[in-house]
């Protein structure tokens, strides 16, 4: 009966998705925001997951966990492939400054402020509070790279699109680095997360002594992670070179093999798979390009299914029973996004782009980077996920999902722009695949096509 | 093709995996092993292709080397303790954890197989297919069982112990029946790898699928009869036939329905095909794990039949609409094939050959099986007046054995357990014999199949099978 219920859900959703009425809904701005953000896949995952239909139980999902590590590694690889030294070197200084204007407040306000809030007002223990705050900080950095729904179409608005994408791209890198460091920092100790939670519950400042007690271990973990990433990058390059140009399946083999090996090695060492994946991608991006041209096409083709897989995993994993603590966290994150991006960063944004910026565009800066979901999935499958008995990784994932949906919808609801007569430029047509959130920006359809060119 | 660097890379990756095994983080090491299996199998396959051997044999061999069986045969003296404690690279537990890969692969392979079978061609060749199928199963079963029985009875060779008061008959009949089967996955994979097209390939595919159907029916019948005879608590009843019919018929019916749903999806949604295919394959696997009760018997849907029926429905009812789907399946199949056959290789058990008696028995059965397959298939093909160009090579294509034989062997072992959970001696010995058969036929079968496809001139004739070339 359970499986029939789940099947009914899937078939109904597919039927609805292909109906004319749904195409009409997708063509509205709200509908487009919901479907192009990959939120439909999250919804399907929630419906199929252990908390609703239980078509996919927790045990079954545990079996699929290697797939999740792989998806995280892939996300990291795609981000790393964007870090081409030729592109990084031409980013204007004002854009870099704008990025710092966003990143630094996100990191410091969140880690310090949220930890204090969780410790003093929500009775959380120090160790899990700091870690959750750091993970949330990583999700706060940057914003969504998607620009079509912001109606940036005029030629004189191109600097706005470029600035949004550039900061989003740099934000992805910063998020991965922060999350990667946090994973290394908080697991360097030989004691388990549960033990550390107990120790720091009675002596909060003990966290500093414990984590700083093992700098050699932290350094070793970090160096090993970088070495694994570099080696896999070089190996991947050589394998792509020997793969047949006539058979794209061979590129897929290399991709699957390299990403799995790197992600698995990272996870085995207790390091974030997404970090090692990113290092692998950086190495590949900065080697001679002639070998990588066809390979990148395979990567681009695979981006959408992988993105959908990530969002489906998020829905399957997420635990909607977030309680009062979860709701508080959702509200705090939304307020932080509004405060830092809409108010603080928006002021500097206008100066950077040096052209009129509509409120719609500024409101769009609060939209969450899809990478946030990936980061929290990484947290949810890590040993630290259950260190906090009041808010575990699966619940935090649901919180981030709620934040993502709110931040996607809010700019549309508060926009003062009328519905454009021709919505085709902003909303995918029925024959055009909706852009699911890619693992890393800049990766919406416009940018993908530009990169391919 | 850089053979030495490829081998060096395989060794380095294996060493790194070995180091990581010491940290062994459960699911984390499984991801690394997936990477090792994919890359290692692919590189080994390329080396094999260079020496004109099937790539699939390379995948299987790589899996065998890194799997638990090979390590168990190596003397441990001289190895450091940390290696002894860490090896094998891919343990039994990890193989069990990779079951979702097998499920995905079997569904993918079976959809591809179904997509190759055109109803129009099948209608014309139905008589030939049915005669070949019955010969390949029934006659070979009869001949193999009789010869083993004769050898056991009239010589000092002891293949199997007796099973209760019914003597040696039941174990030998099981051996003959399972021995008559061959692997659909290897058949499909070899046709795809060799880009083969022609009457031999089509006949191989159709007969293998029909043989699989017949094998399941006969095996279920044998199981029911044997349990009725050997277990005093179980009575012989004809209701099992109804259950078997429901299992097979239900699998085909559900497969057809799913095929229609898939065709509708492709025609209406047109996109996200990769994701859709992966989801469909997992759905097939999920459905096959569900159990139903028919006439008091526990049955489940057969994943192979589900997927073949779906593939046939897509190809024959909606060929234009389904073309992009099959093209996408071809493009994504290579990493799945690498992993699947590497896992299959890792599951092979060479330790059965450590006993001289068992080894001799296995090789005798291998020889008898090959002889009977050759004689019956060649004679039948001649009787049916099939084209001389390929009729003498047909028998070679029925030699591979892999997953289905292993699955039936395991099912046999688990079905006759007593109240304490112990299997009778005859079931254990039969299981050992079958493992040995699979080990040899899995490694040698693809080579013989490739020879048949090349000698018949069908290799390389398929159109549009670019990306599926391994």
Q: What features would you describe in this structure?
A:
- The complex is a heterodimer of chains A (453) and B (470).
- In chain A, 71% of the residues lie in helices and 0% in strands.
- Chain A has helices spanning 2-17, 20-26, 29-36, 39-48, 58-63, 65-81, 85-88, 93-121, 126-140, 158-187, 193-202, 206-212, 215-242, 248-269, 273-285, 293-317, 323-353, 359-364, 371-380, 393-413, 445-452.
- The relative contact order of chain A is 0.17.
- Residues 419-453 of chain A have low confidence and may be disordered.
- By secondary structure, chain B is mainly α.
- The radius of gyration of chain B is 22 Å and the shape is globular.
- A two-stranded antiparallel sheet of chain B has the order 1-2.
- At the A-B interface, helix 1, helix 6, helix 13, helix 14 and helix 16 of A face helix 1, helix 2, helix 12, helix 13 and helix 15 of B.
Write the layout of secondary structure elements.
The complex is a heterodimer of chains A (453) and B (470).
Chain A: H1 2-17, H2 20-26, H3 29-36, H4 39-48, H5 58-63, H6 65-81, H7 85-88, H8 93-121, H9 126-140, H10 158-187, H11 193-202, H12 206-212, H13 215-242, H14 248-269, H15 273-285, H16 293-317, H17 323-353, H18 359-364, H19 371-380, H20 393-413, H21 445-452
Helix pairs in contact in A: 3-20, 4-16, 6-14, 6-15, 6-16, 6-19, 8-9, 8-10, 8-17, 9-10, 9-19, 10-15, 13-14, 13-15, 14-15, 14-16, 16-19, 17-20, 19-20
Chain B: H1 3-23, H2 27-50, H3 55-66, H4 68-73, H5 81-86, H6 92-97, H7 99-116, H8 119-154, H9 169-180, H10 184-193, H11 199-230, H12 239-268, H13 273-288, E1 291-294, E2 297-300, H14 303-317, H15 319-347, H16 356-383, H17 388-391, H18 403-415, H19 425-455
Antiparallel strand pairs in B: 1-2
């Amino acid at each position: 009966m359970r499986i029939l219920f789940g099947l009914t859900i899937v078939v109904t959703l597919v039927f609805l998705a292909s109906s004319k009425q749904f195409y009409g809904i997708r063509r509205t701005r709200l509908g487009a925001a919901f479907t192009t953000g990959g939120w439909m896949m999250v919804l399907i995952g929630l419906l199929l997951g252990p908390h609703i239909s239980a078509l996919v139980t927790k045990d079954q999902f545990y079996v699929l966990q290697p797939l999740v590590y792989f998806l995280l590694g892939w996300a990291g690889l795609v981000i790393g492939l964007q870090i081409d030294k030729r592109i990084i070197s031409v980013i204007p200084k004002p854009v870099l400054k704008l990025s710092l204007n966003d990143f630094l407040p996100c990191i410091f306000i969140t880690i310090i402020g949220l930890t204090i809030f969780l410790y003093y007002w929500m009775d959380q223990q120090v160790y899990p509070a700091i870690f959750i705050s750091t993970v949330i900080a990583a999700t706060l950095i940057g914003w969504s790279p998607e620009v079509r729904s912001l109606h940036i179409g005029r030629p004189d608005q191109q600097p706005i699109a470029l600035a949004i994408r550039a900061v989003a791209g740099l934000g992805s890198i910063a998020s991965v680095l922060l999350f990667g460091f946090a994973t290394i920092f908080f697991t360097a100790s030989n004691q388990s997360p549960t033990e550390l939670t107990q120790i720091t519950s009675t002596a909060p400042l003990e966290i500093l002594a414990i984590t700083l007690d093992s700098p050699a271990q932290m350094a070793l973990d970090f160096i090993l992670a970088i070495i694994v990433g570099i080696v896999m990058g070089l190996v991947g390059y050589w394998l792509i070179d020997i793969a047949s140009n006539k058979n794209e399946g061979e590129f897929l083999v290399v991709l699957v093999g390299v990403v799995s090996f790197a992600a698995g090695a990272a996870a085995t060492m207790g390091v974030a798979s997404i970090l090692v994946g990113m290092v692998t991608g950086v190495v590949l991006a900065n080697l001679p390009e002639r070998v990588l041209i066809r390979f990148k096409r395979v990567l681009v083709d695979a981006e959408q299914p992988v993105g959908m897989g990530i969002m489906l995993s998020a829905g399957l994993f997420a635990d909607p029973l977030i309680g009062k603590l979860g709701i508080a966290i959702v509200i705090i994150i939304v307020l932080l996004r509004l405060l830092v991006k809409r108010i603080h960063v928006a002021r500097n944004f206008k100066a950077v782009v040096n052209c009129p910026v509509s409120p719609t565009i500024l409101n769009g800066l609060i939209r969450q980077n899809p990478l946030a979901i990936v980061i929290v999935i990484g947290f949810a499958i890590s040993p630290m996920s259950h260190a906090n008995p009041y808010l575990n990784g699966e619940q935090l994932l649901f919180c981030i999902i709620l934040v993502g949906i709110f931040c996607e919808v809010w700019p549309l609801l508060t926009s003062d722009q009328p519905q454009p007569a021709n919505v085709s430029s902003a909303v995918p047509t029925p024959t055009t695949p909706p852009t699911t959130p890619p693992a890393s920006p800049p990766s919406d359809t416009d940018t993908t096509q530009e990169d391919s060119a | 093709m850089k053979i030495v660097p490829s081998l060096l890379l395989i060794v380095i990756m294996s060493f790194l995996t070995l180091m990581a095994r010491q940290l062994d983080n459960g699911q984390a090491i499984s991801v690394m092993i997936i990477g090792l299996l994919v890359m290692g199998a692919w590189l080994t396959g390329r080396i094999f292709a260079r020496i004109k051997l099937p790539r699939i044999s390379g995948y299987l061999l790589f899996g065998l080397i890194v799997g638990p069986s090979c390590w168990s045969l190596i003397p441990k003296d001289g190895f450091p303790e940390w290696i002894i404690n860490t090896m094998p690279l891919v343990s039994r537990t990890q193989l069990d954890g990779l079951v979702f890969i097998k499920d995905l692969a079997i569904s993918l392979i079976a959809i591809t197989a179904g997509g190759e079978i055109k109803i129009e061609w099948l209608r014309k060749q139905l008589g030939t297919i049915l005669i070949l199928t019955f010969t390949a199963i029934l006659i070979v079963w009869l001949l193999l069982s009789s010869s083993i029985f004769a050898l056991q009875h009239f010589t000092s060779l002891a293949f199997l112990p007796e099973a209760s008061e019914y003597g040696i008959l039941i174990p030998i009949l099981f051996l003959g029946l399972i021995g008559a089967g061959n692997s659909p996955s290897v058949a499909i994979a070899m046709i795809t790898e060799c880009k083969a097209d022609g009457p031999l390939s089509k006949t191989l595919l159709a007969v293998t699928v029909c043989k699989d159907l017949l094998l399941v029916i006969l095996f279920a019948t044998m199981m029911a009869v044997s349990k009725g005879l050997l277990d005093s608590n179980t009575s012989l009843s004809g209701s099992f036939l109804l259950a078997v019919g429901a299992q097979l018929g239900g699998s085909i019916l559900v497969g057809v329905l799913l095929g229609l749903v898939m065709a509708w999806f492709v025609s209406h949604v047109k996109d996200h095909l990769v994701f859709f295919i992966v989801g469909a394959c997992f759905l097939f696997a999920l459905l096959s794990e569900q159990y139903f009760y028919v006439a008091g018997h526990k049955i489940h849907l057969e994943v192979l039949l589900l997927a073949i029926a779906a593939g046939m429905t897509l190809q024959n009812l909606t060929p234009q609409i389904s073309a992009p789907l099959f093209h996408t399946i071809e493009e994504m199949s290579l990493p799945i094939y690498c992993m699947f056959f590497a896992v299959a290789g890792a599951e092979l058990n060479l330790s059965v050959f450590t006993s001289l008696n068992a080894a001799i028995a296995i090789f005798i059965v291998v020889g008898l099986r090959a002889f009977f397959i050759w004689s019956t298939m060649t004679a039948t093909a001649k009787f049916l007046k099939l084209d001389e160009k390929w009729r003498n090579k047909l028998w070679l294509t029925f030699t591979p054995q892999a997953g289905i034989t292993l699955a039936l062997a395991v099912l046999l072992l688990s079905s006759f357990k007593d109240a304490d959970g112990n299997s009778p001696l005859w079931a254990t010995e039969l299981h050992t014999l079958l493992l040995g058969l699979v080990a040899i036929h899995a490694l040698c079968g693809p080579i013989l199949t490739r020879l048949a496809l090349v000698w018949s001139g069908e290799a390389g004739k398929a159109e549009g099978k670019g990306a599926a070339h391994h």
